[in-house]
């Protein structure tokens, strides 16, 4: 047994940290703020990564990638998430939209969509959830009706992250009968400036850009903008969601915040109430456990398909840990807990406050905690 | 990165499992409660026949993993023998077991069997001799009061860490069996016209304990794989972290397993009752959850817990 990611992974981690140190403002907290400069920083940084062949490290070489291993990819995910995802919203295109197009797209679609993703020039969003189709995605009702050689979309999406930043959206729509559920869904690649497509922000405690509504009013989809086969979208969505369960290395930010809070508090750390220090210690144990559960899933991914229950178990541990760390650290910084990124002298430049707010959604986003528990239970009970 | 157990370790674990199962599994523990000499007349010969007296868990990482897996399997069956202590101690002094004691009244599980070295959680060493018969109580049937004679020099941190890890693997074995019993029960027990496993509240409890068990297994394997190679302070912090996770999992998994079994789970004719009683010495000696956590806090206060960012923080 060997848990060492290897010298190359270590060198990659250092290289990424050097690039972030040289190209990001001190204590950058990501692109999702009211300040448009933050988005510009992320866009610039993506181009830096692209120039270094690090943006698509894990993509196959034929699509402009570096053919890196899943463990290289893991290092990238860990470092990016720990540093508040300085790729901004581009991780979605890199992590699953691009790979989905590689697997399911036509030659024309690959040629059209993959190079801009690889170059860090385009942002994608994901139009899956609807007002009446949250965890039960298969009940989605946005309708796609054949329109000559293309389609017409009508309906509403919700919780669409990054919709106001995005250039394209992967829209899931009903092409089968209303009762067709999983078997009647198709994915469409729709430019965000297409007439009839309107994104509306939803003010939220998560901060700007995380939650939006998307209205589709007779949106025309051109030939070549459909992921084939028609009615075959569910498998692609399922792969995307399975990927998303391990695609965000939340444990890495937990590790970083736990370590840096201890340093920042200095002598005050040891003076914290014993019960709080005990919670801190257990949170550190849980962050390590969550990382190892994620590694188990990634190891499976390296040899074949992601196992649903493995990925779900990892996600349960990771998201609970995310909230636990947020709660512990907010309590450790006392009345400074109200200070976000715009307050001078905020602990870790507002990183704890930001993490706490965002962690509240960890057990909801990308499949609720209850959905993950359902998958784990099914596996445990059916293997019996 | 290789997360798989070596083939020879898997084969050894299967051999131990077959031998203990053939001897009666949890029934062997029931027999030992009625007649404690079963531990020497039946359990000890099984250990000898498996060649475990020749296993030096400090030889290399694979040997440490092998010893740990043997302990896990022993935990699956609540095997009535101090296997973890034997594996932790026999390379220190021939024929000796290594026990761990906490502050206060010194007690060692199976402390009446063979020769004992013991250490406290700071590494101070003692020779232990029994001063009474096993307690014979519900929760500590083989727990023995011992007298301590100080020995010069501390136990090496890696040895202490290894001893803690072997106990944690034993607890993992208990946790696995308790979870499996819970699954077996809810998939067969019918109430209100359907198996308990059809109720969502039950399914979520099974999922929760499954996640705890999976997490403990991954953390245990990670910890044992590097116990002999990391810096001494990190080895101890690792082992305390593993013990925290093992005690958290044991507490919750046994609580849920009992809750889902209902009254039958408390009856000694049911394996769950035997397992939940016999795991108690493992979770309370040398120290239980809160005191273990305090030891981990002390460690973290001295130096950061090893993580993806601790090296950067220390630089």
Secondary-structure map:
The complex is a heterodimer of chains A (384) and B (315).
Chain A: H1 7-23, H2 36-51, H3 70-82, H4 90-104, H5 107-118, E1 124-127, E2 143-147, E3 150-158, E4 168-174, E5 185-191, E6 197-201, E7 212-221, E8 226-227, H6 233-247, H7 250-265, H8 267-270, H9 274-303, H10 308-332, H11 351-359, H12 369-382
Helix pairs in contact in A: 1-3, 3-7, 4-5, 4-6, 6-10, 7-9, 7-10, 9-10, 10-11, 10-12
Chain B: H1 7-22, H2 26-34, H3 38-49, H4 61-76, H5 83-89, E1 96-101, E2 107-109, E3 115-120, E4 125-130, E5 143-151, H6 157-188, E6 190-191, E7 194-195, H7 200-226, H8 232-261, H9 271-278, H10 280-284, H11 289-302, H12 310-314
Parallel strand pairs in B: 1-3
Antiparallel strand pairs in B: 2-5, 3-4, 4-5, 6-7
What would you say this structure looks like, in words?
The complex is a heterodimer of chains A (384) and B (315). Chain A is an alpha+beta fold. Chain A has 3 domains: 7-88, no CATH class; 125-234, Beta Barrel (Butyryl-CoA Dehydrogenase, subunit A, domain 2), CATH 2.40.110.10; 249-382, Butyryl-CoA Dehydrogenase, subunit A, domain 3 (Up-down Bundle), CATH 1.20.140. Helix content of chain A is 48%, strand content 13%. Chain A contains 12 helices and 8 strands. In chain A, the strands form 2 sheets. Chain A has a 4-stranded mixed β-sheet, covered by helices on one side. Chain B has a domain at 157-307: Butyryl-CoA Dehydrogenase, subunit A, domain 3 (Up-down Bundle). Chain B starts with 6 loop residues before the first helix and ends with a helix. With 315 residues, chain B is α+β, with helices and mostly antiparallel strands. Chain B has helices spanning 7-22, 26-34, 38-49, 61-76, 83-89, 157-188, 200-226, 232-261, 271-278, 280-284, 289-302, 310-314, and strands spanning 96-101, 107-109, 115-120, 125-130, 143-151, 190-191, 194-195. The mean pLDDT of chain B is 96. In chain B, a hairpin with a 2-residue loop joins strand 6 (190-191) and strand 7 (194-195).
């Amino acid at each position: 047994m060997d848990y060492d990611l290897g010298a190359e992974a270590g060198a990659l981690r250092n290289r990424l940290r050097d690039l972030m140190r040289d190209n990001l403002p001190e204590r950058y907290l990501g692109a999702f703020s009211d300040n448009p400069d933050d988005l510009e920083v992320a866009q610039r940084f993506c181009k830096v990564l692209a120039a270094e062949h690090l943006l698509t490290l894990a993509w196959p070489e034929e699509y402009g990638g570096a053919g890196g291993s899943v463990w290289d990819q893991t290092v990238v995910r860990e470092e990016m998430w720990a540093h508040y995802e300085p790729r901004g919203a581009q991780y979605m295109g890199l992590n699953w939209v691009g790979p989905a197009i590689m697997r399911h797209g036509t030659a024309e679609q690959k040629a059209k969509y993959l190079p801009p993703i690889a170059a860090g020039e385009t942002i994608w969003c994901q139009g899956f959830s609807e007002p009446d189709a949250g965890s039960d995605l298969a009940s989605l009702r946005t309708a796609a009706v054949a329109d000559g050689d293309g389609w017409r979309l009508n309906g509403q999406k919700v919780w669409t992250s990054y919709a106001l930043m995005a250039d394209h959206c992967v829209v899931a729509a009903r092409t089968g009968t209303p009762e067709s559920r999983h078997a009647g869904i198709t994915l469409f690649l729709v430019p965000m400036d297409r007439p009839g497509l309107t994104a509306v922000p939803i003010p939220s405690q998560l901060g700007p850009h995380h939650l939006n509504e998307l209205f589709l009013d007779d949106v025309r989809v051109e030939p070549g903008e459909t992921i084939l086969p028609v009615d075959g979208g569910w498998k692609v969505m399922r792969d995307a969601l399975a990927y998303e369960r391990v695609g965000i290395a939340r444990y890495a930010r937990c590790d970083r915040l736990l370590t840096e809070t201890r340093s920042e508090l200095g002598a005050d750390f040891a003076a914290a109430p014993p019960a709080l220090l005990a919670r801190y210690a257990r949170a550190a144990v849980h962050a390590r456990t969550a990382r190892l559960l994620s590694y188990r899933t990634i190891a499976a991914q390296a040899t074949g398909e992601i196992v649903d229950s493995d990925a779900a178990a990892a996600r349960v541990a990771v998201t609970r840990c995310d909230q636990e760390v947020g709660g512990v650290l907010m309590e450790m910084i006392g009345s400074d807990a109200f200070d976000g990124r715009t307050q001078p002298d905020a602990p870790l430049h507002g990183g704890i406050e930001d993490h706490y707010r965002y962690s509240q959604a960890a057990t909801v986003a990308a499949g609720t905690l209850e959905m993950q528990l359902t998958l784990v239970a099914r596996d445990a009970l059916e293997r019996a | 990165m290789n997360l798989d157990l070596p083939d020879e370790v898997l084969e050894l674990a299967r051999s131990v499992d077959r031998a203990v199962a053939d001897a009666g599994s949890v029934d062997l523990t029931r027999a030992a409660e009625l007649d404690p000499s079963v531990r020497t007349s039946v359990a000890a010969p099984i250990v000898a026949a498996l060649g475990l007296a020749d296993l030096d868990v400090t030889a290399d990482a694979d040997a440490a993993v092998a010893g740990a897996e043997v302990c896990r399997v022993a935990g699956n069956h609540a095997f009535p023998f101090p296997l973890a202590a034997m594996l932790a101690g026999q390379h220190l002094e021939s024929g000796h077991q290594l026990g761990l004691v906490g502050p206060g009244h010194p007690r060692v599980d199976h402390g009446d069997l063979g020769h004992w070295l013991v250490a406290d959680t700071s590494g101070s060493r003692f020779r232990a001799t029994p001063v009474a018969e096993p307690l014979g109580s519900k929760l500590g049937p083989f727990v023995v009061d011992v007298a301590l004679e100080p020995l010069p020099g501390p136990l090496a941190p890696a040895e202490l860490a290894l001893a803690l890890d072997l106990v944690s693997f034993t607890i993992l074995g208990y946790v696995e069996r308790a979870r499996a019993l819970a699954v077996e029960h809810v998939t067969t027990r019918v109430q209100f016209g359907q198996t308990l496993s059809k109720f969502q509240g039950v399914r979520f409890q099974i999922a929760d304990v499954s996640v705890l068990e999976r997490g403990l297994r991954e953390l245990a394997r990670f910890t044992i794989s590097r116990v002999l190679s990391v810096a001494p302070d990190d080895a101890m912090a690792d082992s305390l972290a593993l013990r925290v996770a093992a005690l958290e999992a044991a507490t919750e998994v046994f609580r849920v397993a009992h809750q889902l079994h209902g009254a039958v789970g408390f009856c000694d004719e049911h394996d769950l009752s035997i397992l939940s009683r016999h795991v108690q010495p493992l979770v309370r000696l040398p120290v239980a959850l809160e005191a273990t956590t305090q030891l981990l806090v002390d460690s973290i206060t001295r130096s950061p817990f090893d993580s993806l960012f601790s090296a950067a923080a220390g630089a």
